[in-house]
Amino acid sequence: MPASHSVPDAVAARLELFLAERRADAAEYGPDGAAFIAAASATLVGGKRLRASFCRTGWAAVARRADARTTESDALWDLCAALEIFQSAALVHDDLIDNSDVRRGMPAAHRALEGAHRAAGWSGDAEAYGRSAAILLGDLLVAWSDDLAEQAIDGHPHARTVRAEYARMRRDVTVGQLLDIAEESAWSVHPADEHAERALRVASLKSARYSVEQPLVLGAAFAGASAEQIAALRAFGHPVGIAFQLRDDVLGVFGDAAVTGKPAGDDLREGKRTVLVARARAALAPSARTVFDEMLGDPGLDDAQVASLQATITGTGALAAVEEMIADHAARADRALAGAPLDNAAVGELRDLARAATTRTR
């Protein structure tokens, strides 16, 4: 059975109601505070709504197994929307940490705030203001996410389970982000053959769990899932999430800027220590690895240098190996749904979502 509403449309409607209340609150903050609220709201425009889709389908897999006629509630859509606000918070902080200038083809939040400082003719360092304000912007979005999640589960019979999973998601992402930035320095003191395993740990905590597994479990818990149903959804969601992140790693190196909305080879300039990079380094001779390491993480890489690194990664067989890993994880996830005590139509939707997440081009 298809969703009763389009996920993006339903989430957008609940976000607009929530944001209208936040804008009303901003009246007492003065014009600068109101502009800050508007900047936070602007980060919620667009996106694939992947996490909301997995949350809603996790709910459907359980709720419609019990009653095929049940429909989505405003509270469920609020939970889905809360995940999208949390995603915006993560992106604001991620772009700041990575010194990324662009997000979805537009200035990243810290650059937009920097531009607003200049446009207003304020004194002082506009770039420093943009970075400081973006930290607070991300924090505000995390608080908004919590506010809306609590609104969704207020008085709900499974509120405790949902709240615990939501808290775990926040912790996992925060630790995963730390491990991600730590690896950009820590790699140098660990053998090359350990790098892929370390990168997979980052992928699990920073992306796989909160992008797929935890939204699925949150939706299922909201529907009152059994331990068996939760286990099946975790067994499906985690490998899909890993495949999703591996695809993201490929796009970060080989993606088309016109499609991804970010400069081609951005991960190379940022020095991301992904599984793709780890597999490439492990296959290089020591002299070639030295050259590779000298180039990786240089923010001034030009197009020719990016192309050279791309060719090196491809030539080592790392790209083919990661594509095989993506296919293997997707197949493992598909097997996890076989015979699971879940609604059949929702299982079909989960398989569609998995394909979209692992074969995407942006």
Secondary structure elements and their pairing?
Elements: H1 7-25, H2 30-42, H3 50-66, H4 74-98, E1 102-103, E2 106-107, H5 109-119, H6 126-153, H7 159-186, H8 195-222, H9 227-254, H10 257-260, H11 266-270, H12 275-283, H13 286-295, H14 303-315, H15 318-336, H16 344-359
Antiparallel strand pairs: 1-2
Helix pairs in contact: 1-4, 2-6, 3-4, 3-8, 3-16, 4-6, 4-8, 5-6, 7-8, 8-9, 8-12, 9-15, 9-16, 12-14, 12-15, 15-16
What does this structure look like?
This is Polyprenyl synthetase family protein. Pfam families: polyprenyl_synt. Belongs to the FPP/GGPP synthase family. Its cofactor is Mg(2+). One of its GO terms (molecular function) is prenyltransferase activity. The protein has 362 residues and is mostly helical. It has a single domain, classed as Farnesyl Diphosphate Synthase, CATH 1.10.600. Helix content is 75%, strand content 1%. The protein is built from 16 helices and 2 strands. The protein has helices at 7-25, 30-42, 50-66, 74-98, 109-119, 126-153, 159-186, 195-222, 227-254, 257-260, 266-270, 275-283, 286-295, 303-315, 318-336, 344-359; strands at 102-103, 106-107. A two-stranded antiparallel sheet has the order 1-2. Helix 1 (7-25) crosses helix 4 (74-98). It is globular. The mean pLDDT is 94.
